[in-house]
Amino acid sequence: MGKQPSRECERVADRLHSASIRLLRRLRLHDKASGVGPAQLSALSVLVFGGRPLSLGELAEAEQVKDPTMSRIVAGMIRAGLAKRQFSEEDRRRLVISPTDKGILVLQQGRKRRVQALAEALTNLSHEELRLVGEAAEIVFRALPRIHNP
To answer: What is the chain's Cα-based Rg?
Structure first.
């Protein structure tokens, strides 16, 4: 077990948590333009940005849902042409889910919309504030591996 966080660490963590939730909620509004629901977009994101096909169980674990729930999500993704089931290249007995070209394009366009919206919001910052936000983002990325799963 690591050392106990200070009050200052808890204060900053609380503020960062609130800011992160607010940021994601606002950016998620731009996802409506994709025409794909949030559960499917989230699962598709795991497949696209994770870089490898996953079994239904692996995808359910990554999305923190039960297998039957993920089965319904994947079925919808397949009907929409966003994902496909195929046999694993490593083990031909194992079925995996991977994104289609359409699914990859939907995610890339969605990411582009979100990044553009965030970039527009950042234009209101001074050069120094923008530099600080950039540094803070890098620091958060470095801290992420230390966040433990319960």
So the answer is: 18
Q: Which domains does the chain have, with CATH numbers?
A: 22-145 (1.10.10.10)
Using 50, 70 and 90 to split pLDDT, how confident is the model at 147? low
With beta carbons less than 8 A apart as the criterion, state whether 77 and 103 touch: yes
Print the SS3 string covering 32-71. Answer: HHHCCCHHHHHHHHHHHHHCCCECHHHHHHHHCCCHHHHH
The pTM is what?
Answer: 0.80
Cα torsion 34, 38, 43, 45: sign? positive
Specify the long-range contacts of residues 44-47, CB closer than 8 Å, at least 24 apart: 44/77, 44/82, 44/83, 44/99, 44/103, 44/106, 44/107, 45/107, 47/83, 47/97, 47/98, 47/99, 47/103
